[in-house]
Design brief:
This protein is an alpha+beta fold. It has two domains: 1-87, Pseudouridine synthase (2-Layer Sandwich); 92-219 and 231-253, 2-Layer Sandwich (Pseudouridine synthase), CATH 3.30.2350.10. It has four helices and twelve strands; from the N terminus they run E-E-H-E-E-H-E-E-E-E-E-E-H-E-E-H. The strands form two sheets. Strands 1, 2, 3, 4, 5, 6, 9, 10, 11 and 12 form a ten-stranded mixed sheet that branches. A two-stranded antiparallel ribbon has the order 7-8. The radius of gyration is 19 Å and the shape is globular. The relative contact order is 0.17.
Length: 253
């Protein structure tokens, strides 16, 4: 049984939860569980049917991204929140650990995104076609081989942050689709031995500090139907904190 979810807000209209990495937001092919189903079980209300209250989807995070996710508990709130997401009125902030260093301390990426012409599971920046996508970013910390960015997606296209950061030369430090391992068969993950010079553990026994998308939905601000402007924050999960702590200790620039 999965551990109980951390509830960040729970009232008559909205439930905000801290999504763990590795759990899909909604049910899908090959998935045995989802965040939607887990929230419904934990709250003791349904996630199917027409009657309210029930847990209703308004937005999603990629399966291996952690952070804040909002659900509506009635149809009126679902429409209220969905309108804000569809019209880019929700303020979203992510933390992204990326490979390499950006050319400046902050910037804007204005580049249309659409399906990759040669890979069904990927998206890509397209010169012709695609849908407009805009991302702002700011450098938080610079390490020897990596950087921590605070990212502000102004639109909500599929894989937007992942594609845009790759487009400017700083893909997520771990991303099997947009920054795969250089050597075939090489495992995904950031190892302490990669940057701690006196680390002596046998590599075959070493566990990665983090082994999933290095992306966290840190904060979201939206218009609550009753409370009006509301901000919800999700603390960094253990794996993300661990890699940042070790980078701070052993790989500062």
């Amino acid at each position: 049984m999965r551990d109980a979810l951390t509830i960040l807000l729970n009232d008559d209209d909205i439930v905000a939860v801290e999504k763990p990495a590795g759990l899909a937001t909604i049910p899908g092919r090959g998935e045995t569980d989802s965040l939607l189903e887990s929230v419904a079980r934990q709250l003791g209300i349904p996630h199917k049917g027409e009657a309210d209250p029930r847990v209703r989807v308004v937005h999603r995070l990629d399966k291996d991204t952690s952070g804040v996710v909002l659900f509506a508990k009635n149809i009126t709130t679902q429409r209220h929140l969905s309108h804000q997401f569809q019209n880019n009125q929700v303020e979203k902030e992510y933390l992204a650990l990326v490979a390499g260093h950006p050319a400046a301390d902050e910037g804007e990426i204005d580049a249309a995104i659409g399906p990759h012409p040669n890979a069904k599971t990927r998206m890509a920046v397209l010169k012709h076609g695609g849908r407009p996508a805009l991302t702002h970013w700011k450098l938080e910390k610079r390490f020897r081989e990596m950087s921590l960015l605070r990212v502000f997606p102004k639109t909500g296209k599929t894989h937007q942050i992942r594609v845009h950061l790759k487009h400017i030369g700083v893909p997520l430090a771990i991303d099997p689709l947009y920054n795969p391992p250089r050597k075939p068969g090489e495992p995904m993950g950031i190892l302490l031995s990669r940057f701690k010079r006196d680390y002596r553990a046998a590599k075959e026994n070493e566990r990665p500090l983090i082994a999933r998308l290095t992306l966290h939905a840190d904060r979201i601000t939206f218009d609550h139907p009753v409370k009006r402007k509301t901000t919800i924050e999700a603390p960094l999960p253990k794996d993300f904190r661990a890699v940042l702590n070790q980078l701070e200790r052993h790989a500062r620039r």
